[in-house]
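Customer ticket, subject: "Can you confirm the structure for Transmembrane protein 185A?"

Message body: Hello, I'm evaluating your service for our small team and ran a test protein. I'd like someone to confirm that this is what the system normally returns, since I don't have a reference to compare against.
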Amino acid sequence: MNLRGLFQDFNPSKFLIYACLLLFSILLSLRLDDKIEWSYWAVFAPIWLWKLMVIVGASVGTGVWARNPQYRAEGETCVEFKAMLIAVGIHLLLLMFEVLVCDGIERGTRFWLLVFMPLFFVSPVSVAACVWGFRHDRSLELEILCSVNILQFIFIALRLDEIIKWPWLVCKVVKILLLSECQGCWASSGWQAEMRRQWILTMGGLLAEGSGGGVGGTE
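Agent reply: Thanks for trying us out. I re-ran your input and got the following:
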C-alpha cells in the first residue's frame, strides 16, 4: 500500500462528514433498539459537530476574504468564495431540517410536512447551485443529491403524515432509480460528464412530469 499517495489524496472534510454520519448511524441504531436512553439531541451530536465545523470554516473563510481585498481581483478566488457561500446556505437549511426532526421526535409531532419544509427549499436552491456549478466546472455531490430528491422528500413527508397510504417500497422507488443511475454513471469512464447529463435529463423529466400534471389538472 502506498501510504504517501493515500495521504496525498486524503480529504479532511469528507473524512469528517463520513465519520460523523457513521457515528450518528451507530448512536441512532442503539437509541432505536433501546440500548441507550440518551435524548435525541445527544444522539444527533455528530450532526451538530458536522454543521458546527461548516459554520466555523465559513466564518474563518469570510474573515480572510474580508481582510484581504486582493483576493477579490482573482477570478478563481471569487468562484471559490461564492461556492463556499452556496454550500453554507445549503448546510444551514439542512441544519434547520435536522433541528426540526429532532424536536419533532422529542415532542412526538405528527405534522411532518412542516418539518420537511427546509428540504423543500433546499431542492430548488440546489438546482440553481448545480446550474452555477456546471457553468464554472465545479465538483458537485451534495447539491446533485438534494436537487434530484425533491419528489422523494415530498413522498416521505406525505407518507409520515399518512396523507398517502402507499407502501414504503413505492415511496422509495425514486431513490432506487436514482441510485441505479448514479451507479451507472460512476462506473462509466467519463462519470462526471455522464452525471451532468443524467442530472439534466432527470430535472427535465421532473419538469415535464410537473407540466403534464398541471395540464391534466386543468382539463
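A couple of notes from the result: The two ends are 65 Å apart (CA to CA). The chain has two domains: 10-67, 73-182. Feel free to reply with more questions.
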